[in-house]
Amino acid sequence: MISCDDLAVTLxxxxxxxxxxxxxxxxxxxxxxxxxxxxxxxxxxxxxRVLGGLQQATGGRVSCDGADIAGPPDGxxxxxxxxxxxxxxxxxxxxxxxxxxxxxxxxxRDVRVDEALDMVGLRDRANEYPWRLSGGMxxxxxxxxxLAMRPRVLLMDEPFGAxxxxxxxxxxxxxxxxxxxxGTTVVFVTHDVEEAVYLSDRLVVLSGSPANIGLxxxxxxxxxxxxxxxxxxxxxxxxxxxxxEALGHRVGERAHG
Amino acid sequence: MGRRLNIVGAAVFVLGLGLWxxxxxxxxxxxxxxxxxxxxxxxxxxxxxxxELATALGHTLFAALTGWAIAAVLGVVAGSVLGLVxxxxxxxxxxxxxxxxxxxxxxxxxAVLLYGFSVQTEIMVSCYAALWPILLxxxxxxxxEARMVESGRVLRLSPAAVLWxxxxxxxxxxxxxxxxxxxxxxxxxxxxAEMVGNPAGLGFLLVEKGQALQPGQMFAAVxxxxxxxxxxxxxxxxxxxxAFRGQLASAGEA
Amino acid sequence: MGGTPIRGLIPLVAxxxxxxxxxxxxxPYFPPPSTWVDGIEPLLSGDKLLPAIGDTALTxxxxxxxxxxxxxxxxxxxxxxxxxxxxxSPSLEFLRALPAASLVPVAALVLGYTxxxxxxxxxxxxxxxxxxxxxxARRSLSPVLLDTPRTLGLSRWDRVTKVLTPxxxxxxxxxxxxxxxxxxxxxxxxxxxxxxxxxxxxxxAAQSNFLSAQVYGLLTIAGVLGxxxxxxxxxxxxxxxxxxxxxx
Lengths: 257, 254, 248
Hints:
- The complex is a heterotrimer of chains A (257), B (254) and C (248).
- By secondary structure, chain A is of the alpha/beta class.
- In chain A, 33% of the residues lie in helices and 26% in strands.
- Chain A is built from eight helices and ten strands.
- A six-stranded mixed β-sheet of chain A has the order 6-7-8-3-9-10, sandwiched between helices. A four-stranded antiparallel β-sheet of chain A has the order 2-1-4-5, covered by helices on one side.
- Chain B contains twelve helices and no strands.
- In chain B, α3 packs across α10, α7 runs antiparallel to α9 (159-196) and α10 runs antiparallel to α11 (215-243).
- Chain C has 248 residues and is mainly α.
- The two termini of chain C are 26 Å apart.
- Classes of the chains: A alpha/beta (257), B mainly alpha (254), C mainly alpha (248).
- The interface between B and C is large, with 60 and 59 residues.
């Protein structure tokens, strides 16, 4: 369980300090899949980085399983949008996936690496170098690397943002399957409304400046979900409608801002 | 990139000097001939006053600049021929690259052997040293973009006009870089020739003061050498910008 | 450079041949190439040549290694932090502007005519190319690459050895490629000026004794050394860069 309370973050900007987040309260229970929605620059990446211990909060409390966070907490792993720069180009896929677990002994390490690669379906590419793989595959390697750590919480920063629509859809489903299997808690940052509704148990919308949570929505759609059937369901469409409205779009009105 | 005065940087520099002064004065560092900055300043004054500095500086500059000027003419002409006339390049480049592997410094004893303790040694060394960057940069600069030369032909320009109006301006930025590099190199090698061969100039001044156990004046001489290099470099850049503003700007150098 | 036609060696070969044919063995200034081997002979039989080459090689290798370590360390530290960079830059630029040649008599006075002095004189100027490339490389490292070991919970040591060092390695080698010929030149320089030991000292001694054939012979050896250094360093850089594709 990971949470923050009355979170405030101020960062240095070009013309002085900027309040990015203020008064943010969020609790993610064990095994939940929560999406954080917001436009670019809304502070959602900052929020994720704070939860992941990569960024210090200026005010408020951030904790994981009750303990305050000061630096990347055990069992919490972040997956970045920029997979190209996150993987180590001088290591094979297998060795990249093993990067976080090299403290374990050989046999345990190999088991976990194979397991993680199976979960993302890249077992047969284990001995290749990242630059030989497509963007989608590289992102899967990064996810496998996180999974090999058997994390309690997976923080994902627009992981599919740089991929084409078809690859995105495929990876969304793979992620769903993995989460079903492992029961990992997931905090998923995105600007894609469809993606947020499709994947999550719950979603929150970050908006304003400084940013705060504007809308909290439960997504009680039955699992397992499917790219075709689920997206035609009434409850899906209703939720999607609600979110777009909260983001400022009205039926018949043109989008602005 | 902010052009604000780098106060912190300047402060650190001054602090460093202060630390140096302290460390030597309090005897923490016990090198017998390491002078504190105050002694260096005094030494600088002494050198100025006695006129030694002016004489030495003049001599070194004369030798270095003469050698460099000769190298500039030779280098640009030879480099142009090599860069423009394909057969010459084919039948000469490898020899040049082989010769280039020879460390220039190793030629100083040869020059001393041939010209003895005289200013000719210095000029020879300075010229040889400056020749390489100037020559090679000119060759590179002259092997211009085929597209640019073609436009000249399309506009029915004579070969001479193509050379003057297209090739030379295009090569200018690279040649200027070569000239700057050549100046730095010729200055350095002139100093070496003065230390090993001709007993005159700043190089010899350094050795002389070392043997006379005058570390303050010695360090002061080093400082002067450093400043001279920077000033010369700046002068060449300034002159080049004045004369060739357009060409340099297009190459991003101005 | 790989595309330079071998035929270009003709002028050089022709020059040497002409020199050999037209040269006068008794000439004090231009003895022909065949006399050079004889010129070196006394050094060989007197067991002086190989130790001299050894001294030069040792100073070169040691000096370059230390310069690489120091340059990489300082360059990475300076590149990691903009404020530190701004604070140290003016002082570093000033030190960089002092030509290596001028440092030689100074070092000889302060540190004495020793092998350690030689090392110091070589290390300081040879450090710069490596320092500069490492600084640039460190500055342009992707923040995502630097966050990755943190989120995976790697220790500080692991972060440096498993991520930072391999990422910077190609840049270090690029710097070494520039610094190596420089280090050789300065090694010879300090040997020629101070006559402490090594090939440069032998060269200087031969010149003082007007043994022109020996001078040319030693010059050729210096040339071969220079060529070997260039060749080794270029191969090393290409080999490692091949394995590290796309590291920025």
